[in-house]
Specification:
Radius of gyration of chain C: 22 Å
Shape of chain A: globular
Distance between the termini of chain A: 34 Å
Oligomer: heterotrimer
Strand order of the largest sheet of chain A: 6-7-8-3-9-10
Strand content of chain C: under 5%
Strand content of chain A: 15-25%
Order of helices and strands of chain A: EEEHEEHEHHHEHEHEEHHH
Helix content of chain C: over 70%
Largest interface: B-C, 39 and 41 residues
Number of strands of chain A: 10
Helix content of chain A: 40-55%
Chains: A alpha/beta (about 250), B mainly alpha (about 240), C mainly alpha (about 240)
Shape of chain C: flat
Structural class of chain A: alpha/beta
Number of strands of chain C: 0
Structural class of chain C: mainly alpha
Number of helices of chain A: 10
């Protein structure tokens, strides 16, 4: 279980997160929606300490971490028990596909090269990228890179995987294959927090949807509730702009 | 033309001049080795942005960039014995006034390289996209692991061409050391000229050696670059 | 021996008195080299037969020649050949009356033109082909397209590099001291010769060079701020 309480974050004078609290249960798939600038990406990055939140606490397993002055040990603990999938893939540019996936297994989890390679190849097989294992990221399409990014996160067997708009940098025709892979990961029962704009994906996969706007959680609920019976006006407005009208009516 | 330049004299002089090339290469080797180490410290310290140290390093780099190397060499030659002379004499029993001038030349070039290479390294490190470090952190690497395994290898590739240009520059800068009495390529050409009364041939020999060796170094670095970019197509 | 403030002061005053020599040498060399370098680069860009091949070989080789070696070589050629050449051309000025700085100009202009031509060649590569076509499309000739469209667009691309070249040139101009031209460094040493206060002289020279270098950086910064305007509008708009 992962629970954030009272998270605040400002960039200079701009308050990006104003007292945000969310809770995600084990095995739950949570999708965070919201317009750009709503703070959803910042919230996600704060969990992995890629962004340093100003205040608030995080409860993870039996640990309680204060965002104000987190211990180095706790930061490392969080990063080692969560995976992160980047919007622009974030593959190590100087390493091959296989090396990208093995890097954490060998360097962080101290597995032997053979064991790491075995795990890496298995995971790459699952995302359909085993054939490209010796390619460099620059030789792959965006969709292929993102599948490797997912494999790299999954291979480390984290308790939670955080997805930061995993398909928003992709060409439209490559979005589908990437979402299929994410769905496949979701079916394994792992806890996931996904920031995305893909509504149909959210509807298919999410156990719960959180809608954020202006640095606060506006409302949350089951996908059906949020998409078809939103309680808040702001949610309604946002959805009407994103979901085509006919789909909204159904 | 025959009165001015004699091929016969040139052929006679060339081997004598080129026999001094190791003096220049010796200076290049030690200056680059120690200069590179110094530059890594300079780059890393500047990236840490420690208030006072950062300002001092900025001043140091500005001085090295803004003043001629010959002046720097002379300041090292005259200044170091004055500033550190008594300390060295009392502590180590070394009389700095007796040291070979080539040592001061090397000190000047090392300090110079600390600044120039330091800026090259800093630029290379900052050119690695932030997401590369973030990706390292996200898989649970420590800061040091991320720096050494992810950032440095990529920065290295960016720095290599600049490093090559800089190294050729250092080689060419060794043409100043005869001004302090070091008998290198030019120093040798000059002494031969003084003894024989014919200087042009020696200078032409030195010029050709500089040109040939510079091109050789340039080719070598192009090869290294090509090797390094082997498996990888340019980043999109 | 120690550092004498009064000697340093004397050297500083003397160095400043000769600063105009260095500044003039640097400025004239820079402007002339900019023109020559641009011409060389343009010839090579358009692959003008024979000339472009000659320049390609010459520039590549010449960039391997240190300025100091070039200076000494030209100086010795000048010293040996002057009398005969002057005789042929009916020049009556004796060699002792000729300012050796002209050798400095020659060597520095040649070297700087080569390196500038490389930078300009790089800038050509940074310009979209469509810009040429746009020039031709409104009826400009090749030359007018270059001067009205292409060269102006190169300025912001070249400026940061040119600022470095100019500081490099300022420092390289120091080498003419080796052929007995009195400039900032040798000027600073004039008082030192009397008192053996060499360190003071060299430190004074360094200071004057440093100040001029900082001046160039400030000017370069201002120029960069103004010249890149068209790039910035593209970026924000």
């Amino acid at each position: 279980m992962i629970e954030l309480t009272g998270v605040k974050k400002s960039f200079g004078k701009q308050e990006v997160l104003k007292d945000v609290s969310i809770k995600v249960d084990d095995g739950e798939v949570v999708v965070i929606l919201g317009p750009s600038g709503s703070g959803k990406t910042t919230l996600l990055r704060s969990i992995n300490f890629l962004e340093k939140a100003d205040s608030g606490t995080m409860k993870f397993s039996d640990k309680i971490i204060n965002f104000k002055n987190p211990k180095k040990k706790d930061i490392l603990y969080m990063r080692r028990h969560t995976g992160f999938v980047f919007q622009n893939y974030g593959l190590f540019a100087h390493k091959t596909v296989l090396q990208n996936v093995m890097e954490g297994l060998v360097q962080v989890q101290k597995k032997s090269k053979q064991e790491a390679q075995q795990i890496a190849e298995e995971v790459l097989q699952n995302v359909g990228m085993l054939e490209k294992k010796d390619s460099y990221p620059s030789q792959l399409s965006g969709g292929q890179q993102q599948r490797v990014g997912i494999a790299r996160a999954v291979a480390l067997k984290p308790e939670v995987i955080l997805f930061d708009e995993p398909t928003s940098a992709l060409d439209p025709e490559l979005v589908g294959e990437t979402l299929e892979v994410i769905k496949k990961v979701a079916k394994t029962g792992i806890t996931m927090i996904v920031v995305t704009h893909e509504m149909s994906f959210a509807e298919d996969v999410a156990d719960r949807v959180i809608f954020m706007d202006g640095g606060v959680v506006v409302e949350e609920g089951k996908p059906g509730e949020i998409f078809y019976k939103p309680k808040e006006e702001r949610t309604r407005q946002f959805l009407s702009r994103i979901i085509p009208q006919d789909a909204y009516v159904i | 033309m025959g009165n001015y330049f004699s091929l016969e004299r040139f052929i006679h002089v060339f081997p004598k001049v080129i026999s001094s090339l190791p003096v220049n290469l010796h200076i290049v080797f030690w200056s680059m080795l120690l200069g590179t180490i110094l530059a890594v410290f300079v780059a890393v310290l500047r990236l840490q942005r420690v208030p006072v140290i950062s300002g001092l390093l900025g001043l140091y780099i500005s001085f090295m960039r803004g003043t001629p190397l010959l002046v720097q060499m002379m300041i090292a030659f005259y200044g170091i014995p004055i500033v550190l002379g008594t300390v060295f004499l009392n502590l180590f029993g070394i009389n700095l006034n007796r040291l070979e001038p080539v040592i001061f030349v090397e000190i000047a070039i090392i300090l110079n390289e600390g600044a120039f290479l330091g800026e090259i390294f800093r630029g290379a490190i900052t050119s690695v996209p932030a997401v590369q470090s973030e990706a390292g952190y996200s898989i649970g690497m420590t800061g040091a692991q991320t720096f050494v395994r992810i950032v440095l290898p990529q920065a290295f590739k960016v720095a290599i061409p600049h490093y090559g240009v800089d190294l050729i520059g250092v080689f060419q800068n060794t043409s100043l050391v005869f001004m302090l009495g070091v008998v290198d390529l030019l120093g040798r050409a000059k002494t031969i000229g003084a003894a024989s009364g014919h200087t042009i041939e020696g200078y032409v020999a030195a010029a050709l050696i500089y040109i040939a060796f510079s091109l050789l170094l340039k080719g070598a670095f192009l090869l290294i670059e090509k090797k390094l970019s082997g498996g990888e197509i340019k980043l999109v | 021996m120690s550092f004498s403030v009064s000697s340093f002061w004397e050297s500083l005053v003397s160095a400043l008195a000769y600063a105009p020599v260095t500044i003039k040498l640097t400025a004239i060399t820079f402007v002339v080299s900019l023109v020559l370098g641009t011409i060389i680069a343009t010839i090579r860009y358009y692959k003008v037969p024979v000339l472009s091949q000659i320049f390609a070989v010459f520039v590549t080789a010449y960039l391997g020649l240190p300025t100091m070696v070039a200076l000494l070589l030209y100086n010795i050629i000048f010293m040996t050949c002057y009398a005969d050449v002057a005789n042929v051309l009916h020049i009556t000025v004796p060699i002792s009356e000729v300012d050796p700085i002209i050798i400095g100009y020659f060597a520095l202009i040649l070297g700087t033109s080569c390196s500038v031509s490389e930078s300009v060649r790089g800038a050509f590569r940074g310009i979209d082909k469509v810009q040429f076509e746009a020039g031709y499309s409104i009826g400009l000739g090749k030359f007018k397209t270059l001067t009205r469209v292409i060269y102006p667009q190169m300025v912001p691309i070249l400026l940061p590099g040119l600022q470095n070249s100019l500081i490099g040139l300022l420092k390289a101009s120091n080498l003419v001291s080796a052929i007995s031209v009195i400039e900032i460094m040798t000027g600073a040493l004039l008082p030192s010769l009397l008192y053996y206060s060499y360190l003071e002289g060299y430190v004074a020279a360094a200071l004057v060079y440093w100040l001029i270098g900082i001046g160039i950086e400030v000017i370069g910064y201002l120029a960069e701020k103004n010249s890149g305007k068209y790039l910035k509008q593209v970026a924000t708009g």
